[in-house]
């Protein structure tokens, strides 16, 4: 996350997380402290569902703050090194992506640029989010 995010924005997200966590607690315990859960398997399944949902929420929110979501108006093509630009950030395209994580599917938005020389689509700044070992790998340019 970058410095461009304010303390107020961070606090608002924290409050949103608390709402999500309270809902997970209510899903587990309900009004009577049991919420119809009898067997250990029932309890474990519900706890896993609730915490997986929290994990997916955290991932989606964190990705929404990633600078790769909007790298700027001008970027370099990772193939030819030439400039790829737009008149304004509003003209620059972004695309909705799905990622299958260890906690289930999440969706996030990511910048997408098309080099007029290479005619390749890429995600600036030339890095892609990858599920698995947590490492970020160089993005492969997509064909037309």
Domains, number: 2
Question: Rounded to an integer, what's the Rg over CA atoms?
Answer: 20 Å
Q: Overall mean pLDDT score?
A: 79
The beta-strand count equals 8
Largest pleated sheet = 2 strands, antiparallel
In short:
With 144 residues, the chain is α+β, with helices and mostly antiparallel strands.
Please explain how this structure is put together.
With 144 residues, the chain is an alpha+beta fold. It has two domains: 7-64; 69-138, no CATH class. The chain is built from two helices and eight strands. The protein has helices at 7-29, 40-64; strands spanning 74-76, 83-85, 94-101, 104-111, 113-114, 121-122, 127-128, 137-138. A two-stranded antiparallel sheet has the order 1-2. Strand 3 (94-101) and strand 4 form a beta hairpin. Helix 1 (7-29) runs antiparallel to helix 2 (40-64). The two termini are 31 Å apart.
Characteristic key phrases:
single chain, 144 residues, alpha+beta, two-stranded antiparallel ribbon, 2 helices, 8 strands, 21% strand, elongated, disordered C terminus
Task: List strands and helices in order, with pairings.
Elements: H1 7-29, H2 40-64, E1 74-76, E2 83-85, E3 94-101, E4 104-111, E5 113-114, E6 121-122, E7 127-128, E8 137-138
Antiparallel strand pairs: 1-2, 3-4, 5-6, 7-8
Helix pairs in contact: 1-2
């Amino acid at each position: 996350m970058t410095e461009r995010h304010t303390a107020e924005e961070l606090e608002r997200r924290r409050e949103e997380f608390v709402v999500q966590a309270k809902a997970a607690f209510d899903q587990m315990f309900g009004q009577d402290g049991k919420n119809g859960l009898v067997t250990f398997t029932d309890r474990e399944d519900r706890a896993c569902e609730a915490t997986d949902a929290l994990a997916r929420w955290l991932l989606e929110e964190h990705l929404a703050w990633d600078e790769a979501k909007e790298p700027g108006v001008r970027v370099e093509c990772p193939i030819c090194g030439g400039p790829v630009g737009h008149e304004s950030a509003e003209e620059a395209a972004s695309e909705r992506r799905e990622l299958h994580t260890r906690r289930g599917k999440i969706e996030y938005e990511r910048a997408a640029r098309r080099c007029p020389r290479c005619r390749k689509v890429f995600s600036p700044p030339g890095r892609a989010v990858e599920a698995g070992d947590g490492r970020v790998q160089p993005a492969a340019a997509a064909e037309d």
